[in-house]
Request: fold
Amino acid sequence: MSWSVFASIALVHALGVLSPGPDLALVVRQSLVAGFRAALRSSWGIALGLSFHALCTLLAGAYLQSAAPGVLAALRIAGAVYLLYLGIRFLLAEPIDGEIQPSDPSRDFWRGVLVNLANAKVAVFFIAILSVMVPEQTAVAPRLGLAAYLCIATGVQFSLIGYALSHFRVPLERLVLIERITGAALIIVALNLGVEFWGSW
Reply:
């Protein structure tokens, strides 16, 4: 794999991270509601989830599409259900009275992992991009290196976004609005995934 191919993939990936979606919505929510540390943990959770998508695409993408379509379908359904569940939880958030309670570190991290894994569009994005841009003759080692880069780049980019947003001072009474906007966005994504899945059958 040439450096020009790597640079092209890196650019497309960076733009993809900035595109609206569940991952970005979660980082924005964590930054403004729970603070930078929560956003940092969720960012690296997202990065771990993304590494799974990247590895599956780089090492077994063609096989999964042809030999195991049922597995992909089950993952898409489970992902849509989880995003819907999380969206409803955020949408029904209660107003915050007094001080903001510290968030649970492990929950922040695993929420990031699950939100990314639940987003079937990440898998579609990688299958569409990597299967086209990565030459078929590319050895396993460069593929693993590319997956590692995509994971680290995702964590760094979302961490920087979280750091920048965490410096905004949002009044407590408006935090619940951010929660509900995030919830509505996740519900819309979940319903959209469901409609796309239904239309594909």
Remarks:
- Residues 3-199 form one domain.
- The chain has one domain: 3-199.
- The chain has a mean pLDDT of 81.
- Residues 40 and 50 are 15 Å apart (CA to CA).
